Amino acid sequence: MNPYISIIIPAYNEENKIKDTLENIKNIDEISEIIVVDDGSSDNTSKMAKEVQSDKITVITQDRNRGKGYALNNGLKVAMEKGDIIGFLDADLGSSSKEVAKLITPILNDEADVIIAKFPPAKKKGGLGFVKGLAKESVLEMTGVELDATLSGQRLFKKEVLEKFDEIPYGYGVEVGMTIDILKHGYRIKEVLVNMTHSETGRDLKGFIHRGKQYYHIKKVLRKKKKEWR
Prior knowledge:
The structure is a single chain. 38% of the residues lie in helices and 17% in strands. The chain is α/β, with parallel strands linked by helices. The chain has one domain: Spore Coat Polysaccharide Biosynthesis Protein SpsA, Chain A, CATH 3.90.550.10. It has a seven-stranded mixed β-sheet with strand order 3-2-1-4-6-5-7, sandwiched between helices. Helix 5 packs parallel to helix 7, helix 5 packs parallel to helix 8 and helix 7 runs parallel beside helix 8. The model has no long low-confidence stretch (mean pLDDT 90).
């Protein structure tokens, strides 16, 4: 019997991308269900998601914006009921969402307990590498494992891994915190190169504010993890 694979897609104001993202994964045979969690969007994200024809898709609409962590936890309430393997995908991947198939094969082959998508280099200049560097160095310092895609939100987990968490952490440090915990619990992580693309933050004020928040949250998570694992 094939494992039941559930994909959770948190979405906030992604009316321009969500349909394309869903159309390109709905026919992947290995995927059993797709749970879209509209995190209180002020646009037509839910409407566009519901227009995609597939029995696999469930759309949950939250009454207000509560953040990615809350949306993931909301989706997990549904996914954990049936899912043997549970994946997180961003809503803005568009047609490149089909690359998730490259993550499915290695987890089905038991090459690791968690598969993380490793993106190609960004096409436009973003930050100065401080956030990515901090994330990579933090995981290496805490676990002795060197990973390149510690910030990637495109991940597949065996159910037993997620059962270690009472809930998904909140804030921009979620991926780093989870990666540290997963490795500390002795689970195997594998990075897989994919040709995915999504909205990139540039070197404008908005981009720098976003990366500033990321940096702060990762530092906060790192302090917490050092206390928990000392």
